[in-house]
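Slack export, channel: ligand-projects

TW: morning all. Re-posting the request from yesterday since it got buried. We need the structure predicted with the small molecule present, not the apo form. The ligand is flavin-adenine dinucleotide; the SMILES is in the block with the sequence. No rush, but it would help planning for next week.
GE: picking it up
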Amino acid sequence: MSEADVVVVGADPTGLVTALGLARAGFRVLVADTGRDGIASAYCAHDWSVLPGLDRLGVLDDALRAGFASTRWCLRVLRSGERIDLDLRVLDGITPFPLTLHLEQAALCRILEQHLAIESTARIERDVRLVGLAQDDAGVDVILDGGGAPGRIRADWVVGADGIHSAVRRHIGLGFPGYTWPERSVVALIDGDLAELGYAGTTFQVDDRYGAVVQRVDDRRWRYTFAEPLTLPVDRVAERIPEALRAVGDEAEYAVLEWHSARMHQRSAERYRVGRVLLAGEAAHVTNRMVGHSPISAFFDAFRLTEALSAVLGGHADDTVLDVYAADRRRIFHDHAAPLSASRKHLISQISDHDRLETELEYYRRASADPGALRDLLLFNRELEGRSPLDSAGR
Ligand SMILES: Cc1cc2nc3c(=O)[nH]c(=O)nc-3n(C[C@H](O)[C@H](O)[C@H](O)COP(=O)(O)OP(=O)(O)OC[C@H]3O[C@@H](n4cnc5c(N)ncnc54)[C@H](O)[C@@H]3O)c2cc1C
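GE: finished. pasting the full token output, ligand included:
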């Protein structure tokens, strides 16, 4: 007899969304995480496409109360001063939430955790590290180190939502092929009045030297994400931030509250399922941390995996639906999330040729002027949702 239907390793967005979905469906879930709270400068602008899923989970109202909604996205071309505005309200009637939810990832996770705490079949163990996995035909032995959890837990299924350095992925023998960009991303969380300078809720600042993604966190705080070559010394990132933020003004205009730098990768596990162990979110795939396709894909992984695991645990489908989940999410990463992320990063910070840049910008100018073209551009993110694993298998 297993002690949990599912052990979810990792209590950040992917793990918490999966755990909450499973607990709401009545399944016994244990979530295990090494840490306590996320980093304030982690992601904060949640795409319209994931909001219906958060609503179905019953957390969107709380999230909107804790954060705020914005409907404007803009491109700001630094050299010419051109500004291209894109208004999400063209999605009125297509989605109930034509907006971006601005809320720090850590705050969203706290809301998810509060909802999880109400579920009698769910439990979160903090300060525990997954150190081993052994599976057979009937279940998985999960070996945890630290905290109050027993060292060994028997589960029917395990979800690895433990991020880019996933221990789950390693323990099931999967590599993480792909490549590392020759740049690192730097996120500076700053206090300043960037709205006054014309920044929208989300702004792609297009420039081959000062390119950045700028996102509003709340009334005063903004996330300013840029890329810099890996050849620059990592121990002197802080000294270079004022120069990278030149477009905002001199240092008197803002205060850097915290910053975080990381190497940028484009990688995917060879498979997202090995027996009774499944991968989701950044444990499964990662792309550059500039433009937000990692978190969008992570939410959709969690929604789809919840559907598939609930159907299997509830006896409504056989486990081939988990193969469909695994194959479909991997295909979507390779066919959509990875190329789109790479091309957006390229547009924001890497095009020095004037004609090439004009061609790329024309697409956004057309979208800004033509609601139909803008809808097509925005609806692309639905490709990241993919199909329900239950549509085509095991039913
Ligand atoms: C500082 C920062 C800035 C970011 N900025 C951007 C951005 O600008 N654009 C963008 O697209 N994305 C960005 N991201 C990435 C985005 O937030 C991720 O897509 C998202 O965090 C994916 O979530 P996840 O739940 O899959 O993994 P993670 O958020 O990495 O969560 C993994 C969880 O697993 C836990 N864990 C790890 N190992 C173990 C173990 N052995 N045992 C138990 N628990 C374990 C960790 O403590 C963590 O809570 C950023 C992330 C960070 C941290």
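GE: first-pass observations. The mean pLDDT is 93. The pocket of flavin-adenine dinucleotide is lined by residues 9-15, 32-35, 39, 41-43, 105, 129-130, 161-164, 167, 187, 225, 260, 281-282, 289-290, 292-295, 298 (CB under 6 Å).
TW: perfect, thank you
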